[in-house]
Amino acid sequence: KQEVTQIPAALSVPEGENLVLNCSFTDSAIYNLQWFRQDPGKGLTSLLLIQSSQREQTSGRLNASLDKSSGRSTLYIAASQPGDSATYLCAVRQTYKYIFGTGTRLKVLA
Amino acid sequence: ETGVTQSPTHLIKTRGQQVTLRCSSQSGHNTVSWYQQALGQGPQFIFQYYREEENGRGNFPPRFSGLQFPNYSSELNVNALELDDSALYLCASADEGGEQFFGPGTRLTVL
After folding, report:
1. Of B41, B98, B103, the CB nearest to A32
2. Which of A34, A38, A44, A102 to probe by mutation at the B interface, max B CB count within 10 Å?
3. CA–CA separation, A26 vs A37, rounded Å?
4. Class of residue B5 by CB neighbours under 10 A (exposed 0-12, middle 13-18, buried 19+)
5. Residue B85: left (phi > 0), alpha (psi -120 to 50), or beta?
6. Count of C-beta atoms within a 10 Å radius of residue B42
7. Which chain B residues have any C-beta within 8 angstroms of a chain A C-beta?
8. What is the DSSP letter of A35?
9. Which of B33, B50, B105 faces A42 most closely, judged by CB atoms?
10. Contact A27/A34 with Cβ under 8 angstroms?
11. Which of B99, B101, B106 is the best residue to mutate to test the A interface, defined by the most A CB atoms within 10 Å of its own CB?
12. B46-105 pLDDT, tens per residue?
């Protein structure tokens, strides 16, 4: 059974820091991995999608890597800003099913 | 191109009642999935529809059912509501590459 874990559960950093969020999964047979952002009480905003054949994806200040063999993905956020404060979720796709981690709550202090 | 929309935004029901939640997918997305998100947890997969047929289901009882229509809209129906059904319900449509796009969710409270 696929399990997705995100570490740390919560993170508080001063503005301007570069930071890394971690996602690990137990079964490497995945189609893709997607990172999302969720603001309190809101839906999910897609940040980056990495197909199983890819190693990384970049969008602006965000970079996500995927190491399928070790069951790990990292989301790197450069030069963090207070507007980056949110919960970050990763999800892996297996056949039709998407399995989510419990998220990392990020707070960026001005 | 419009995004994924959901209605209603909030809903309050009592135990034992039935509820229907609605979702409008992005045009051209043939796949829609529904998720339940309890407070402080990641979304839990309920089921997925592809071209109006259910093609996958998570660990939810049969009182959770759905429909998908040709106009890219879909419904989640929950019968015999229980207190533990209180959650944020999210729908997501997916493009052919598998990228999911989520709606804003419906907050259901069961009293």
Report:
1. B98
2. A44
3. 22
4. middle
5. alpha
6. 21
7. 4, 6, 33, 35, 40-45, 48, 50, 55-56, 58, 88, 90, 92, 97-105, 107
8. E
9. B105
10. no
11. B99
12. 999 998 999 899 999 999 999 999 888 999 999 999 999 999 999 999 887 778 899 999
Instruction: Tell me which DSSP letter residue B26 carries.
Output: P
Given a cut of 60, whether residue B1 has pLDDT beyond it is no
Report how far apart, in Å, the C-alpha atoms of B100 and of each of B14, B17, B21 are: 32, 31, 19
pLDDT at B3: 87
Per the CB < 8 A criterion, the answer to whether B83 and B97 are in contact is no
Q: Residue B100 is encoded by which pair of tokens?
A: 């999911």
Q: What is the mean pLDDT of residues B27-36?
A: 90
CB A48 within 8 A of CB A57: yes
CA of B98 to nearest chain A CA: how many angstroms apart? 8
Binary contact (B103, A43; C-beta < 8 A): yes
In DSSP terms, A4 is beta-bridged to: A25
Query: For B48, which residue in chain A has the nearest alpha carbon?
Result: A96
